[in-house]
Amino acid sequence: AIYFEAAPLDDIEDTLDTLAFILFGVAAVTTMFAAAVGWWAAGRMLNPLVKVRTAAEALAAGALDTRLTPPDDADLASLTASFNEMARALEERIARDARFASEVSHELRSPLMTLTASVEVLYNMADELGERGRTALDLLSDDISRFRRLVEDLLEINRYDVGTADLEAEEVHIVEFVQHAIFQFGLDSTAVVDFEAAPGMETTVLLADKRRLGRVVSNLVENASKYGNGEVRVNLDRHDGLVHLGVEDNGPGVVPSERTLIFDRFHRGRAGGRRGKDSGSGLGLALVAEHVGLHGGRVWVEDRSNATRGARFVVELPVATADDESEEALAP
Q: Is 241 within a domain?
């Protein structure tokens, strides 16, 4: 005979469900704990590398005195020492190059003055030189003028390299100032410069270094007249406490890939390959960027509006506030 005995399994199922819940909870807690420990360990291991990356970015941005603190880990200490040695060598190299440029520029001043004086003497005897002699004299004079501009620009940009560029700020009525700068440029140029200021700009005042701001305007107008077929348009407007000085030309424009590089030293771009008798030093736009940056502004180049041929250089400068004017009045 066969006997069957039925027994309820509810208790066993409850026990199994409880064990499954406990196992799931333990697995979840273990996973989160492991993830937390892994995140902490990875952060601890990568933190020195993050510091190296941050220091490298600061070095690339121009902070040449950036150095790393040596860690306790021997391998990372070797990496830190190599980075610090590289930074020191780079700082010394740039400082040596800046001193060289400054010393060479100063040494060139004396013979340059002699050449300039000699050319003036020859111009007083121009009638005796004949046509070919006068042509050669004109070419020599143009080259000496370009050479003098190059020396002056090298000395100017060297002040930024060694950190001695100071801002002698004073109140500037921007509309009147730009008009005067354009007039001064027109004395030595045949370029046609149209000027337009937005309504209400006549009362706008900036705190600026007149000499440096004048160079910004003249360099941009000269650049526009050189590569824009002699047609230049200058405009002023104001946006939310910022003055925008726009200089437009009718030239070939600037391709997007060159719109940052064009402010590098000695970069001429595609249009810069056309070298004529009025070719500049290759430092004009680099000095514009340096002067504008010293004023707390920025400069960029873009296309002209309405798909018009040419390029538009824009200088953005902060408008003087009442607090700025008060500080300027109290300055010695």
A: yes
- 232 in helix, strand or coil? strand
Contact 301, 269 (CB under 8 A): no
Of 16-30, 87-101, 317-331, the poorest mean pLDDT is in 317-331
Closest CA to 318 of 253, 239, 219, 248: 239
DSSP 264: S
Query: Which residue, among 139, 150, 141, has the nearest Cα to 116 in the 3D structure?
Result: 141
Indicate the helix (H) or strand (E) that contains 316.
Answer: strand 311-318
| Count of structural domains within the chain | 1
Q: Which residues are bridge partners to 298 per DSSP?
A: 316
Q: What are the backbone dihedrals phi and psi of residue 114, each rounded to the nearest 5 degrees, phi first?
A: -65, -45
Q: Is residue 195 part of a domain?
A: yes
Asked if the structure places residue 187 within a domain, the reply is yes
User: Alpha helix locations (H) across 125-195?
Assistant: 130-161, 174-186
Q: Model's pTM, two decimal places?
A: 0.66
